[in-house]
Amino acid sequence: MREVKDKGRLEHMLTAINNVEEFTKGINQEDFVNSKVLFFAVVKNIKIVGEATYMLTKEYKQSHQSVPWLIIEKMRHVLVHGYYTVSPEKVWATVQEDLPLLKKQIRDLLQEDNKKISE
């Protein structure tokens, strides 16, 4: 199996965030809270974001400290191990408040990495 590099992990994160955006487009909080299927689909993709973050190299995370890597990893741990404490309202807040900013940060990192490759 081919080793996935940091760039690949960032791409996985971006794909998962795009999935969440697609799943929640046109959905309000009430609809989200009342849909078990939608809730679990979104949680799965947020877990992917967390797992991809966890799998980034320490060097990469240290060289890009503007991204809250540890908070993202902690969210993943809560979703996996503290699943019984997760409320749809908290997940909705993450979707609305945190993922758009993270998406921009990941896009910026990918663009920065692509510039380094082409130089």
Describe this structure as you would to a colleague.
The protein is mainly alpha-helical. The chain has one domain (6-113). It has six helices and no strands. It has helices at residues 6-24, 29-33, 36-55, 58-63, 69-81, 88-118. The model has no long low-confidence stretch (mean pLDDT 93).
Shape: globular
Residues in helices, as a percent range: over 70%
Largest sheet: none
What is the beta-strand fraction? Answer: under 5%
* Cα radius of gyration in angstroms: 15 Å
Protein structure class: mainly alpha
Task: Quickly count the helices.
Answer: 6
Spans where pLDDT lies below 50 across 5 or more residues: none
- The tally of strands reads 0
Query: Which whole number gives the mean pLDDT?
Result: 93
Q: Count structural domains.
A: 1
Element pattern in H and E: HHHHHH
Question: Roughly how many Å apart are the termini?
Answer: 29 Å
